[in-house]
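Exercise 7. Given the components listed, write out the predicted structure of the assembled complex. Treat all entries as one system.
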Amino acid sequence: MSNTATTPDKARASELGAVAKFFKATELDTRMLGMIGAMLLIWLIFNILSGGLFLTPRNLWNLSVQTASVGVMATGMVLIIVTRHIDLSVGSILGFVGMIMAVTQVEILPKIIGFDSPVTWIIALSLGILLGAAIGAFHGYVIAYLGVPAFIVTLGGLLVWRGAAWWVTSGRTVAPMDEHFRLMGGGPFGSIGATASWIVGILLCIGIIAAIVNTRRQRLRFNFPLRPMWAEIFLAVVGCAVTLGIIAVFNAYPWPAKTAADYALANNIPVPEGGLFIAHGIAIPVIILLVVALVMTFISNRTRFGRYVYAIGGNPEAAELAGINTRWITMKIFILMGVLCAIAAAISTARLNAATNAQGTLDELLVIAAAVIGGTSLAGGSGTIIGAMIGALLMQSLQSGMILLGVDTPLQNIVVGIVLVLAVWVDTIYRKRTA
Amino acid sequence: MSSLKTPLVEMRDISISFGGIHAVDHASADLYQGEVVALLGHNGAGKSTFIKILSGAYKRDGGKIFVNGQEATINNPRDAKGYGIETIYQTLALADNVDTAANLYLGRELRTAWGTLDDVAMEAEARKVMGRLNPRFQRFKEPVKALSGGQRQSVAIARAILFNARILIMDEPTAALGPQETAQVGELIKQLKADGIGIFLISHDIHDVFDLADRVTVMKNGQVVGTAHVNDVTKDEVLGMIILGKCPPGAIPGPGASNS
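Answer.
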């Protein structure tokens, strides 16, 4: 049955070269592979220049934690840019929401429910998410229903929420965070350890294989062209190998000797010769990023809402004529962005173990750059969550690599700016060639 | 015979103006089951605007719309679709960046038991309906912007007939088509008509529609010049209505007739 459906594709495939045949069979996105290739190249260069310091478990683990906050926001920025809007206020929302969460858990809740209450972090985080959603809803309402361009509304938001973050405590830094809340920022205790990391890795592998099997089964059901079996197996093996490889790297980064020694002392664990090896495993902020990315990918690919977001980006008038309530969809996108800002604020506040009025300054530009480098077109209509995540990782790699090399701060900004423009230029050429 | 007495759609005294310009000025038209009414007029005569009020794309300033004799509330495209009114727009109104199936089901996606998009089922249905309209069409996985003008047009037509429309509005449906495809659309219109669907056919070229239509309604400067059965008037007389606004004896004159 399925043979009849695959015939035309086979006929076409035979005319292609070996490389093209490979890409056609695996249906891999060559643009995405190019981006990953560029990132690996950057990593290699940093590794050589730093004398092997870059590609170490410790640095890669730190890189993953540093990416989390911007990565979370970049997933939302994709949807905003896809619908031909922009959000310049994400850094300021992060600052304001972070400040409110900090004040809640440091100055308000202890008076009501006492210090070290196990629910403090839940209340603070929930409040932050509600506040983020409310701010996003307000922006979205003004943009969608009052018709003020998103650029202007969020430019206003950039100033308003930064000012608000300052105003709440008159510019005072609030610290330290609640003990449980702090886990969202990573660190030795904010990581899930070796065993749990392997379990997460294995679950991800099962997920990859299940997705491949499910796609094949669905296509078989309706006699659609199938990927060749070798391509399916290749994708499954590579996907699982990469996942488990990353887990192995995270598990190769031990706790600091002092922390491990203290922990051993507190728990009566005998310390072997040469110190105790306790692996970090995946950091909790990275787990959060992973969950956010999965949820956002699901939303954008598998739900009506996601389909409408892309349709609006492709042709707003057509979406409206098709009966889509484009205003409400626009407002929902900004609510989502507000919630993601709140999650990013929690990660960043927890990691810093403090809230400052300058937190998240210029993050909006990193987030937009991550989305754009990740293939989101400012003309609207195209962009992927996974692309934005890789874009965020690429931006963070550049920054942390240059810090590792001791490059001066002004020069760092110059390099990041040039790379952004270069990346988009290369992408423009690529799109022209493949269109 | 009762279906002949009660029009499927009646638009009565419809007006709309854009900043002082009366794009449509007290225009009326009706449509019966299984009938094709051609809406003719120059570019800028107001025919597209008039019909976009029926499809919900524009909100009228005055006038009433009746569907099956009942007054209908049409404030947006969703309302119109609720009454079984489907539209093929002149601009096609396709989301260029998504594929054929996504366009066909835009706004009315099929969903699985989990509430997620059922892309596979939508694509299967898309293959069925496109197979009927354009059997050689194979490019289901590509975004619509990669398709040719004729293919895009067939996607727009397929979208309108996919949902059991009772009233179909076709705004210049053959504008992007070659002679063979135009003939196909003609066949399709006859077939839909036989199914009892009422069709508003909009064109600026009477040769396209004269053979297909049962009646013609001619507009000029936002007003209706007149309405006539195609058997009661000649092509030349209809041309006179379009160009001069002159209503021939075989037609029922409207407010826009110059000799009334």
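Discussion: Chain B is about 30% helix and 25% strand. Chain B touches chain A at residues 55, 57, 76-78, 81, 87, 89, 91-98, 102, 106-109, 111, 115-117, 120-121, 123-124, 138, 143 (CB under 8 Å).
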